[in-house]
Amino acid sequence: MKEEKLQITAYEVRDDEKAFFLQLAGELNVEVIYTTETLNKNTLHLSTGSKGITTLGQSHINSSMLHKLMAMNIKCVATRTIGHNHIDLKAAEELGIKVCNAHYEPNGVADYTIMLILMSLRKYKQAMFRANVNDYSLTGLRGREMKDLTIGIVGTGNIGAKVIDNLSGFGCKVLAFDNFQKECIKEKAEYVTLNELYKKSDVISYHVPLLESTRQMVNRKTIEEMKDGVVLINCARGELMNIPDIIAGIESEKLGALALDVFENEAGIYHLDRRTEIISNKDMAYIRQFPNVIMTQHIAFYTDAAVKSMVTCAMSSIVSVLTSGKSVNEVN
User: Fold this and answer.
1) How many CB atoms lie within 10 A of CB 88?
2) What pTM was computed for the model?
3) In the annotation, is 237 catalytic?
4) Domain with CATH 3.40.50.720 in the chain
């Protein structure tokens, strides 16, 4: 008798993920139902017959949705993202549904962070815009060299630590803050209090998760503690920053430059083609017009290696939960 394959439903599948899904489906001997749509009441039926599902961050899996998934005998929800704020972990735990997240090497985001620092310091946005209209003047484009600066890294997890590694070749002084200090970091950076980091850093880059303690940690009060002309970099979570306070800092020229790969309330905008639609995020529309603000569409993570790792984590986690009852990537 032919063994029945495990069935997994994959939501929000992008074209660049399909080859990895197909490869892993063969390797893991599972059947995958694909859709580009988010998980919602209209697409829930696609999970019929599946024991596990995987999504990206646009699917909001609240308690009501989790109850529906439990009724369909779904045992595991695997998000192909590191963050899992879009899933109600408490409800999932109460219902006995395992939730797993993805992991990927920190190199891509760390490399991207360095690129944003350099683009901000060398005023590349203004230079690029001028070149597009054949303006090759130098006025206002004088930059600064990394060797003369102090760079502050807030959060020394995998990504923050890799950023510090990357910075070691530029000759700059590196300060670091984290509640959990690592001995290996002390060889390349000096751990200081957050207040001291704010006072001494010319550039500050954030690499912390979104928690209640970190939500809007960049605000009017903390900006006042920073150097005049400080450059802020955020490739972590948009909600780390109080955007009205950030805007005030730019308008007053307290902030010398700002580079954001993430933005509060980016869901439904980033990773989608919205060219012919009205985007109702006034802060996003306003802040992007400043000449010293660089904004990219949450792509710091987006490399071939990271995409493969995200799909692999999701697929292997679901199979592991369904066959052994646990996964190394569980978050609840």
Assistant:
1) 21
2) 0.90
3) yes
4) 6-104+304-324, 107-295
